[in-house]
Amino acid sequence: MALLFAIIVILVTTAMSLPPVIRIGAIFTEDQKDSPSELAFKYAIYKINKDKTLLANTTLVYDIQYVPKDDSFRTSKKACKQLSRSVQGIFGPSDPLLGAHIQSICEALDVPHLEARVDFEPTFKEFSINLYPSQDHLNKAFKDLMSFLNWTRVAIIYEEDYGLFKLQDLVKSPPSSRTEMYIRQAGPGSYRQVLREVRHKEIYKLIVDTDPAHMQQFFRAILQLQMNDYRYHYMFTTFDIETFDLEDFKYNSVNMTAFRLVDLEEPKVAEVLRQMERFQPIGHAILNKTGVIQAEPALVYDSVQVFAHGLAALDRSHDLRPANLSCEKEEPWDDGLSLYNYINAVRTFYDFKLSSLLAPCRLLHYAKISLRSEFYVRNRTCQCLLKVAC
Ligand SMILES: *[C@@H]1O[C@H](CO)[C@@H](O)[C@H](O)[C@H]1NC(C)=O
Ligand SMILES: *[C@@H]1O[C@H](CO)[C@@H](O)[C@H](O)[C@H]1NC(C)=O
Ligand SMILES: *[C@@H]1O[C@H](CO)[C@@H](O)[C@H](O)[C@H]1NC(C)=O
Ligand SMILES: *[C@@H]1O[C@H](CO)[C@@H](O)[C@H](O)[C@H]1NC(C)=O
Ligand SMILES: *[C@@H]1O[C@H](CO)[C@@H](O)[C@H](O)[C@H]1NC(C)=O
Ligand SMILES: *[C@@H]1O[C@H](CO)[C@@H](O)[C@H](O)[C@H]1NC(C)=O
């Protein structure tokens, strides 16, 4: 009897603990080397390792791989290599197409995949935890805003080939049957021409889904065509509108509206950003400017938090046995599903309170809108959005 008791005690004490080292893989595209997103990832790991209250006896170790954009073959190979060295989760990449490839590998081998990317197919994906707001939620938010603002004649300018695909629900079922939509694809070479057409058609409400990297060129085109008076209202799909130079719009009364993901006014968020900025030598480079973080690094940071809280929850009731997996053999990881379920159950621990794990109403609640009139934001929370959503 005593022997049996001893064995049970040993089983219990050894079973319920995480291994001392947990390896996680991260994949960034080459242009993301030393980007705010990569630095946010490293900082998040550092912070969790330092905070001994969460994972007391476990250290997270990362394996970062860089991959060329548009090369899914090499990206898959790098992921397989990481999996063969027993990573217990893969983060990224944020590129929508590469991300989808890694997603299918993680799904085949039962490895949690943490991502923050635009997803074209809004279907449930096993083993994927995507913090990027779903396109459904976003389209709903745009529609709510359009009805709130009584928009009836709207131009949509999109840039990426998949842009229309993203917004198709908006186009197919606009907020009101009276809504008339004029849809054009444009890039830096054609912004001016397309904007001129919009002006010619006397459309004053625009939804702008252009590549954020070209935003200044888009702004310049607006200014050159003088489409910046009080009649115009632009709704931007980027979550980072505050990071752009809006100085040129300071003295005219054009309206600009955008959602953002991170509630910078929230005291807890501000505190996290302050700590981040103090973290030398890289802290300041994670932020865009003091007190402002772009959506992507914020999502990457939060996805590490979510992973760590999932691990901690699992630690309380399950064992975790790392395994070296092989893409050739396709034998799934035994403990992957439990870990995924624990991560997926994490709802409240993120520092930036990001959205897609939450219900749509929470998303909209944290998506602040700014209605600009004078310079900078004369922001007001759009009551109707909150009401419609919840
Ligand atoms: C961490 O390890 C110490 C010493 O081995 C042990 O006393 C403690 O309970 C462990 N903590 C957790 C959370 O497993
Ligand atoms: C939209 O139209 C309704 C009814 O015409 C009006 O009450 C409301 O104030 C308008 N909203 C805005 C933001 O202009
Ligand atoms: C721009 O904002 C001002 C003040 O908020 C408002 O009166 C005006 O109607 C808005 N214009 C457009 C085109 O939405
Ligand atoms: C801040 O954001 C803008 C636009 O998103 C970008 O062009 C700029 O490089 C960013 N600056 C830093 C320091 O990250
Ligand atoms: C995974 O492979 C490494 C060597 O590549 C080995 O040291 C380690 O023990 C293996 N882990 C497992 C769980 O098989
Ligand atoms: C935006 O609104 C919040 C309240 O929702 C307020 O605390 C903050 O000061 C406003 N920001 C600006 C720049 O007006």
Please describe what this structure looks like.
The protein is an alpha/beta fold and 390 residues long. Helices cover 41% and strands 16% of the residues. The chain contains 14 helices and 12 strands. Strands 7-6-8-9-10-11-12 form a 7-stranded mixed β-sheet. A 5-stranded parallel β-sheet has the order 2-1-3-4-5, with helices on both faces. Helix 4 links the parallel strand 3 and strand 4. Helix 3 packs parallel to helix 4. The protein starts with a helix and ends with a helix. One 2-acetamido-2-deoxy-beta-D-glucopyranose binds next to loops. Its main location: membrane. Keywords: Membrane, Signal, Transmembrane, Transmembrane helix. It is found in: Membrane. One of its GO terms (cellular component) is membrane. This is Receptor ligand binding region domain-containing protein.
Low-pLDDT parts are: 3-15, 353-390
Q: Distance between the terminal alpha carbons, to the nearest Å?
A: 57 Å
Average predicted local confidence, pLDDT: 81
Structural class: alpha/beta
**Element-level helix/strand string:** HEHEHEHEEHEHEHEHEEHHHHHEEH
Integer-rounded radius of gyration:
23 Å
Bound molecules: 2-acetamido-2-deoxy-beta-D-glucopyranose
Short description:
The chain has 390 residues and is α/β, with parallel strands linked by helices.
Summarize the helices and strands and which ones pair or pack.
Blueprint: H1 2-15, E1 21-29, H2 36-50, E2 59-67, H3 72-84, E3 90-91, H4 96-109, E4 113-115, E5 128-130, H5 135-148, E6 153-158, H6 163-172, E7 180-185, H7 191-200, E8 205-209, H8 215-224, E9 233-236, E10 255-260, H9 267-278, H10 283-286, H11 295-315, H12 336-344, H13 360-366, E11 368-372, E12 377-379, H14 383-389
Parallel strand pairs: 1-2, 1-3, 3-4, 4-5, 6-7, 6-8, 8-9, 9-10
Antiparallel strand pairs: 10-11, 11-12
One 2-acetamido-2-deoxy-beta-D-glucopyranose binds next to loops.
